[in-house]
Amino acid sequence: MWGGVWLGLGSILGTGVFVSIGTATQGAGVIIAITIGALVAVCNGLNSAQLAASHPVSGGSYEYGYRYLNPWFGFTAGWLFLLAKSASAATAALGLAYYLEDLGINLSPRLTAPIGVIIMTFLVFWGIKRS
Question: For residue 94, with 0-12 CB atoms within 10 Å meaning exposed, 13-18 middle and 19 or more buried, which class applies?
Answer without folding.
Answer: buried
